[in-house]
């Protein structure tokens, strides 16, 4: 089940975040998004399997973060979350979803490419230790 994240989900989300990223977001950041319609989780039997944060920047939907708990990777969780983000973006009449991904993270890039995203640019030194690849999904297709 995909639903909007609440404050009670934050400990599970922070755990996923810490297991997924070298430079994780703090619980304070996630608390600031609690109950925000673009902050979604996927849950099964009361267990949070993954989350996504879709925010609006300059009239475009921006996928700020998405992660799946390592125990549930390669089971379609991220794909379901991404589909949820696409539905949210379309419901709010956004024509594209934009994201940045580490240049070194080829697995994530392949995931986004396989889900219709295209590389549209790069940002040098976006991360403290890496460049960013900018990718977009055109929702007008």
Written overview of the protein:
The protein has 141 residues and is an alpha+beta fold. It has one domain (2-138): Gcn5-related N-acetyltransferase (GNAT) (Aminopeptidase, 3-Layer(aba) Sandwich). Helix content is 30%, strand content 39%. It has four helices and seven strands. A seven-stranded mixed sheet has the order 1-2-3-4-5-7-6. Strand 3 and strand 4 form a beta hairpin. The two termini are 27 Å apart. One of its GO terms (molecular function) is N-acetyltransferase activity.
List keywords for this structure.
single chain; 141 residues; alpha+beta; Aminopeptidase; 7-stranded mixed β-sheet; 4 helices; 39% strand
Largest sheet: 7 strands, mixed
Strand content: 35-45%
Task: Tell me the radius of gyration.
Answer: 14 Å
Strand order, biggest sheet?
Answer: 1-2-3-4-5-7-6
In DSSP terms (H or I, runs of 4 or more residues), the helix count works out at: 4
Terminal residue distance: 27 Å
- Text of the CATH class: Alpha Beta
Percent helix range: 25-40%
Overall outline: globular
In CATH, the architecture is 3-Layer(aba) Sandwich
The name of the CATH superfamily reads: Gcn5-related N-acetyltransferase (GNAT)
- In the CATH hierarchy, the third-tier topology is known as Aminopeptidase
The chain-level structural class is alpha+beta
> What order do the helices and strands follow?
EHHEEEHEHEE
Our count of domains comes out at 1
Which parts are unreliable, with pLDDT below 50 for 5 consecutive residues or more? none
Mean pLDDT: 93
Count all strands and give the number: 7
